[in-house]
Amino acid sequence: MTTGSCLCGGVQFAISGGPPEHMTHCHCSLCRKFHGAAFATYVGVSKGKFTLRAGQELLKSYATPNGTTRTFCRECGSSLFWANEELFPTFASIAAGTLDSDPGSRPTGHGNVSSKAPWYDIDDDLEQHP
Ligand SMILES: [Zn+2]
Ligand SMILES: [Zn+2]
Questions:
Q1: Ligand at shortest distance from the CA of 72
Q2: Which ligand is nearest to the CA of 31?
Q3: CA of 89 to the centre of ligand 2 (A)
Q4: Residue 125: what pLDDT?
Q5: What does the pLDDT read at residue 66?
Q6: Distance 118 CA to ligand 1 centre (A)
Q7: What distance in angstroms lies between residue 55's CA and the mean position of ligand 2's atoms?
């Protein structure tokens, strides 16, 4: 069981069923803005393994022009979830920085590398996808 929360602690969630099957870095410009960081790291699980334990009323979502939805805590502003209901309707994607314990997964690659921040150089050997 992996648990996670936002900065203020109002939003609490849990991931069951062992280590999340996906963990990747995304370098797209939307993730960069949403996280205020060089890139975003997400863990991905099927929705059945994700449980929101507290803070439903604090969740606010922003729909980006490219069809993704970004959900954050309206109290503290923490970047929490990414979704694309059209392409990945059964998939929950969670910002790894909000996890409170080691999920057991490790990043497997970098996505959207073609739009990465010019001031950040990838210096690991993980797969890179344009
Ligand atoms: Zn919060
Ligand atoms: Zn992204």
A1: 1
A2: 2
A3: 17
A4: 96
A5: 87
A6: 30
A7: 24
Per-residue pLDDT at 11: 98
**Mean pLDDT across the chain:** 96
Report the separation in Å between the CA atom of 5 and the middle of ligand 1, taken as the mean of its atom positions: 8
Residue 92: the pLDDT is 95
Q: Any idea which fold 2-116 has? A: 2.170.150
Per-residue pLDDT band at 112 (split at 50, 70, 90): very high
What backbone phi and psi angles, to 5 degrees, belong to 100? -100, -5
The residues spanned by each domain of the chain are 2-116
* Ligand nearest the Cα atom of residue 29: 2
CA of 56 from ligand 2 middle (Å) equals 24
Q: DSSP labels for 12-70? A: EEEE-SSS-SEEEEE--HHHHHHHTSS-EEEEEEEGGGEEEEE-GGGEEEEE-TTS-EE
pLDDT at residue 60 above 90?
A: yes
- Point out the ligand nearest to the CA of residue 34: 2
The mean per-residue pLDDT over the stretch 17-34 comes to 96
Backbone phi, then psi, for 57, in 5-degree steps?
A: -70, -15
Q: What are the φ and ψ backbone dihedral angles of 35, each rounded to 5 degrees?
A: -95, -15
